Amino acid sequence: MRGFKVFLVGALKVNSTLLYSKGKAFLFDPGAEEEKLIRFLEEKNLTLKGIFLTHGHIDHFGAVKRLKGLFPEVPVYINEKDKFLLSQELWPGFAKYLNADLNPPIDGYLSEGDSFKLGSLTIEVYETPGHTPGSVVYWVPQLEVLIAGDLLFRGGVGRWDLPGGDYNALISSLKKVFNLFPDTARVITGHYDPTTLGYERRHNPHLRGIL
To answer: Which fold has domain 2-207?
Structure first.
């Protein structure tokens, strides 16, 4: 049994993804409502083996500290360039609004070219700065799934006006992703609806004249 399940969590509807294979699971961007994620693990009899962040914004890591308390042996990964964001709530009172905990414990730092095995699946790491300096995407070739964080949305792209954002870097990262992966790739965006690279190439107004 292998596959993935996407959960909309928290006030900002973050896509938190559980990827699983052969009784083991990786969790991506647990921003909130960790009880949903734990319930799925229990129902499917899955053992959590890793927590991965696409970037360092609080709406994407808000439940990490609580999960780490429940699963202390499970490592948490992020790109080191986003370490500075883990103590920032972005706006006063934002952490309380999101029911999120700052300063999640980090066990390892990711870089371009890293890969992880999960049962019969491989997870490849690609650096895609722009939304934040340390934004990464995760590619699962066996499923043709791209966990893209806030790099790309259905009909939109990530914002670049928050701390560490860089428009030129964002454009370079978008070009990189569309060059690396097939149009058939299913994209789990950071928020709201999933999409495919092919759909965005044809219909996303923010990509016109870029790709």
So the answer is: Metallo-beta-lactamase; Chain A (3.60.15)
Task: Scan for tokens 């149009």, then name that residue.
Answer: 183
Give the count of alpha carbons within 13 A of 190, CB side only: 25
Residues 6 or more apart whose CB falls under 8 angstroms from that of 183 comprise 196, 197, 198, 201
Provide the residue ranges of all domains of the chain, joining segments of one domain with +. 2-207
Per the listing, tokens 């893209």 go with 148
Q: How far apart, in Å, are the Cα atoms of 63 and each of 36, 59, 134, 149, 199?
A: 11, 9, 19, 16, 32
* Closest to 85 in 3D by CA, of 58, 119, 46, 122: 58
- Structure confidence by residue, pLDDT tens digits, 129-150: 999 999 999 999 999 999 999 9
CB atoms within 10 A of CB 192: 15
How many other β-carbons are positioned within 10 Å of the β-carbon of residue 114?
A: 17
The β-bridge relationship of strands 186-189 and 152-153 is unpaired
The answer to whether residues 28 and 138 touch, using CB atoms and an 8 Å cutoff, is yes
Taking phi over 0 as left and psi of -120 to 50 as alpha, with beta for the rest, 193 belongs to beta
**Alpha-helical regions (H) of 13-134:** 34-43, 58-61, 64-70, 94-98
Find residue 17's DSSP bridge partners.
Answer: 6, 28
- Residue 93: partners with Cβ closer than 8 Å, 6 or more residues away: none
| pLDDT, tens digit (0-9, with 9 covering 90-100), for 42-68 | 999 999 999 999 999 999 999 999 999
